[in-house]
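Amino Acid Chain and Its Fold in Token Form
===========================================
Structure side: the spatial fold of the chain, written down as a series of whole-number tokens.
Position: the record begins directly beneath this header, with no further notes in between.
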Amino acid sequence: EKRSADSSPSPKSFVSQLQNSVSIALRANLWPLLLVKIITGIASSIHSTALPLILSQQLNFDPSQLGIGMSIASFSVAAFGAVGVSPLVSTFGVQWLARVGLVFRGVSSVIAAIVITAAAAAAALSTATVAST
């Protein structure tokens, strides 16, 4: 059956869509998810910025090796997302995977914070050692 032009729902205005998004975001049960999402977004941004620097400056990757390494990392994440998630969802269920995902994101954020703090402390110590000699 074809719908007539009159029976199709009218599009919502930008303001009403924005109000709906804000009302959803203000739900108390979403705050842990949003907090973890923000923290892991920051950690991901730091990782994507720091990894090429570490690979090139500390591990002496040349530009071609750096490009291959970064491409393989991006491709593997995309491939798993395209192929690996469906069997996990059908085996364990959406709710369980969401909980496990939140735990892994939280743990990875803590690990990233520890690594960043340790790297900053090591850099500060090496700078202080060089300055004192």
Notes: Residues 32 and 112 are 19 Å apart (CA to CA). The chain has a mean pLDDT of 81. Residues 94-132 form the longest helix (39 residues).
